[in-house]
Structure formats: structure tokens, C-alpha cells
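Quick illustration, no need to memorize.
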Amino acid sequence: MIHIEQIAPELTWRLRRDVLYPNKSFYDMGMEEDSNGYHFGAFTDNQLVGVVSLFANGTDCQFRKLAISNSFQNNGYGRLLLKHMVCFAKSNGAIRIWCNARTTAIGFYLKTGFTKTGRTFSKNGFDYEIMESFFDNTQ
């Protein structure tokens, strides 16, 4: 059983490092904007197995650092965590949600309703494409 809740930014650091940046220091995982964001954790049996961070700018939201523990990947945890975060953003007035998706994760985001923008870039040895989804909040 999975349980998702809002967590402190520092609780995201270990999974950020272990999954996304295994050669970096634990303390390098904090981002300057963490204090201005929303952070979500997915738990199973009281173990933190997934994290994601959301940053709002008016009706535009960016999520960053979606990470699922390696031993829990491919079990739907990422999809559930993403869905929870998207619902949170939408219920708080978001019209657009987007991310810088690693090219290795594009298939995952396509399956969860995101579309490719065609805008690509490379940073710190990783290739990315900006992916996005829009909401109709007039209902």
C-alpha cells in the first residue's frame, strides 16, 4: 500500500542523490528554491520510496527531481506520485505543469499524459527535453 504526503525538503535529498546523482554528495542535493516549493513523498510500510518537488509561478508549475528508489521502480509508484502532485497543482489553480525530463524518462512522461515540446538541452552530462501538460480549470 502506498501513502503520499507533503514532506520537508530535506527528506527528498537522499533519494535525489541515490537515484538521480549517485556520485554527488548528500548535501549537494538541496536546491536554493526548495524553501519556496512543495515536496511530496511516497511511503510504503513507513519507508520513503519516492519523492518529487513542485514549484509554482502563478498558474505555471514546474516539478523537479522525481525519484523512485531503485528497488521500487517499475511498480507504479512514480505514476501515483506524479498523479498526486498533478492533482495538487491543479487544485491550487495551475493551468500548466512542466518538467525538464531526462531523455531516458520521456517514455514514462508520455504515458502519464505529458507532451514533448521539442525544446532540448544538455546539462551536467544529461540530455533533457521540456515536457508539459495543460489543465482546463474553468470547470
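Residues 86 and 97 are 8 Å apart (CA to CA).
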